[in-house]
C-alpha cells in the first residue's frame, strides 16, 4: 500500500459509497526515536504508518490481524502503545458482536500484544481483561490508554466504561487502573463521571504547563472531541467556560503525542456517505493533526503544524478583482534586509449596505492562503470566499467571521431548500478588531485556523475556483494576503 504526501493521510482514495472499514479511524499516535508512528483501525485490523513531520507518510503496515468470528478480537480495535523495560506493550480492544448477551462472554474486552521492535507483534493469548463488573457496567469496556503518571508515580490505564447503575445514555465514565510494571493492573478509581454522555471514548490524559488535561470523544450528538482540565489528576475536572472542543463536528477520536517539546493532537476527519454534500457523516476518514497550545487562562487552543506550514513554499500570484462593494489595493515597498525588499499588500473593502467581495486568485490543490483580517467597529461579518466559480456566484464556500455572534462559520452555496444538516461553526473571542486567518485546502478538505481556533470540514461539489475576501455591512482590510503552493 502506498503512502501519500497530501497532509491528511488515509490509506484509501475516497470513492462514492466507501464502506465502514475502508477508512482510517481511531488513530493511536506513538513517538519513538524521531518518528511518529500512527497506529489506526483499518479493515477491522490495526495498521500503522510512520511520519517525521505530518506531511510525508510511508507505506502502512499490518500490526494486529483480527481473529475469527468466534474469537474475542473478531474486530481488533482502539488502544495504546507504551514502552517499558525494553518491551513495547499494545493494549487494545477486542470486539466480538456475536458475544452480546451470551452468558460468560463479552462483546468488549481489553487484550494485549507485545513487541521489541514496533514491527513484529505477538498477541498475549493468556491476557484477558473483561469488564470489571464490581464497579462498572458490562458492555462498554474499551480504548485502554496507558501512560506514566508522575503524580501517582504509577502507570495508569484509562478505560472507556459506564457506571454500574447509571441513567440510560448518561452513564459514561472514565475508569482508571494502576500498575507498577505495565503488566498487572488493579482498580484505582473513577476520575470523571458527569452523567452527561453515553460513553467517553478514546481517552487521553497529560500534563501541560502545570495543569492536567483529560480528552475524550463522544458520538451521541455529532462526532466531537472534548477536553477537561484540573489541578490534580484526581480532579475535580472542570469544563472550560466558552469552548471545550478543539475543532468542528467531524473531528473525532483525537489523542495526543509529544516529542518532548511540542504536543500534537491526532484525530480523524469524517467522510460523508457516498462522498456527497448531502450525505451523512460516517465513521472514519482522513488523519487530521493540530499542534496544541496552552493559553494564558490555561485553556487549550490549536495551531497549524509548523512542518505543514513550511511545506507550502511556492509563492502564487495575488490578483485582485472587486465584484461587489468598493475595493482599494495599496502596495508599499518594505525593506526586509540589505539584500531583500518586498511589497506589502493592503486590500480594503467597504460594503455598508450588505455583502461585497473581491477575488484574490486561483486556489490550487493543495494550497495555503493566509492573511490578517481587520475590520471597523460595527461591521457584522468578514471572511473568505472559497472555491468560487460562476459569473453569478453559482458555487462557493464561505468562511464567515460573525463578529457580533463571536463565532466562525463554514457556509456553502447548496445549503438551501430545507437542508437540515448542521452548520459547521466554532466559538471565537475576537479581540482588537483583527484576526489571523489560515486556510489549507486539499481535495475535499478545508482546514481553517482563526488565531488559535480550528475548523476543519469538507465540500465535495466545489473543489476548485477563486479565493477571495468579503465584508457584510461594514469595512474589512486584508493585510498581506499570501497564496502558497507546494
UniProtKB/TrEMBL annotation:
The keyword Magnesium does not apply. It is an enzyme of class 3 (hydrolase). Its EC number is 3.2.1.26. The keyword Zinc-finger does not apply. Keywords: Glycosidase, Hydrolase. Gene3D superfamilies: Glycosyl hydrolase domain, family 43 (2.115.10.20). Residues 29-277 form the Glycosyl hydrolase family 32 N-terminal domain. PANTHER family: BETA-FRUCTOSIDASE. Belongs to the glycosyl hydrolase 32 family. This is beta-fructofuranosidase. It comes from Diplocloster modestus. The lineage of its organism: Bacteria, Bacillati, Bacillota, Clostridia, Lachnospirales.
Amino acid at each position: 500500500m502506498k503512502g501519500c504526501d497530501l497532509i491528511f493521510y488515509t490509506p484509501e482514495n475516497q470513492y462514492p459509497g466507501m464502506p465502514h472499514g475502508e477508512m482510517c479511524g481511531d488513530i493511536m499516535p506513538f513517538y519513538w526515536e524521531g518518528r511518529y508512528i500512527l497506529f489506526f483501525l483499518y479493515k477491522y485490523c490495526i495498521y500503522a504508518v510512520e511520519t517525521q513531520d505530518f506531511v510525508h507518510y510511508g507505506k502502512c503496515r499490518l500490526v494486529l490481524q483480527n481473529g475469527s468470528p468466534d474469537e474475542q478480537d473478531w474486530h481488533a480495535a482502539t488502544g495504546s502503545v507504551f514502552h517499558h523495560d525494553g518491551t513495547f506493550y499494545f493494549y487494545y480492544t477486542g470486539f466480538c458482536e456475536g458475544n452480546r448477551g451470551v452468558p460468560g462472554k463479552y462483546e468488549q474486552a481489553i487484550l494485549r500484544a507485545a513487541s521489541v521492535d514496533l514491527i513484529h507483534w505477538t498477541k498475549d493469548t493468556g491476557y484477558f481483561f473483561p469488564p470489571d463488573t464490581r464497579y462498572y457496567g458490562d458492555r462498554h469496556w474499551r480504548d485502554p490508554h496507558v501512560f506514566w503518571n508522575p503524580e501517582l508515580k504509577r502507570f495508569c490505564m484509562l478505560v472507556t466504561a459506564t457506571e454500574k447503575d447509571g441513567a440510560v445514555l448518561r452513564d459514561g465514565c472514565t475508569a482508571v487502573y494502576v500498575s507498577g510494571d505495565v503488566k498487572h493492573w488493579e482498580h484505582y478509581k473513577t476520575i470523571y463521571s458527569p452523567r452527561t454522555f453515553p460513553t467517553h471514548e478514546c481517552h487521553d490524559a497529560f500534563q501541560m504547563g502545570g495543569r492536567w488535561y483529560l480528552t475524550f470523544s463522544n458520538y451521541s450528538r455529532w462526532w466531537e472531541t472534548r477536553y477537561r482540565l484540573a489541578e490534580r489528576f484526581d480532579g475535580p475536572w472542570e469544563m472550560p467556560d466558552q469552548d471545550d472542543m478543539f475543532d468542528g463536528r467531524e473531528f473525532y477520536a483525537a489523542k495526543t503525542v509529544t516529542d518532548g517539546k511540542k504536543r500534537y493532537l491526532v484525530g480523524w476527519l469524517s467522510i460523508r456517505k457516498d462522498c456527497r454534500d448531502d450525505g451523512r457523516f460516517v465513521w472514519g476518514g482522513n488523519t487530521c493533526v493540530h499542534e496544541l497550545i496552552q493559553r494564558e487562562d490555561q485553556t487549550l487552543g490549536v495551531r497549524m503544524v509548523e512542518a505543514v506550514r513550511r511545506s507550502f513554499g511556492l509563492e502564487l500570484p495575488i490578483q485582485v478583482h472587486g465584484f461587489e462593494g468598493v475595493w482599494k489595493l495599496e502596495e508599499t515597498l518594505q525593506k526586509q534586509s540589505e539584500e531583500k525588499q518586498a511589497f506589502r499588500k493592503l486590500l480594503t473593502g467597504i460594503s455598508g449596505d450588505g455583502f461585497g467581495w473581491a477575488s484574490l486568485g486561483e486556489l490550487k490543490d493543495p494550497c495555503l492562503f493566509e492573511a490578517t483580517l481587520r475590520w471597523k467597529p460595527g461591521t457584522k461579518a468578514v471572511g473568505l470566499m472559497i472555491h468560487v466559480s460562476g459569473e453569478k456566484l453559482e458555487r462557493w464556500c464561505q468562511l464567515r467571521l460573525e463578529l457580533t455572534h463571536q463565532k466562525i462559520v463554514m457556509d456553502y452555496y447548496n445549503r438551501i431548500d430545507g437542508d437540515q444538516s448542521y452548520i459547521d461553526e466554532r466559538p471565537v473571542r475576537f479581540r482588537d478588531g483583527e484576526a489571523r486567518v489560515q486556510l489549507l485546502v486539499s481535495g475535499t478538505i478545508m482546514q481553517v485556523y482563526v488565531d488559535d481556533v480550528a475548523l476543519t470540514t469538507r465540500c465535495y461539489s466545489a473543489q476548485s475556483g477563486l479565493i477571495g475576501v468579503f465584508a457584510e455591512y461594514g469595512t474589512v482590510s486584508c493585510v498581506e494576503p499570501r497564496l502558497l503552493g507546494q
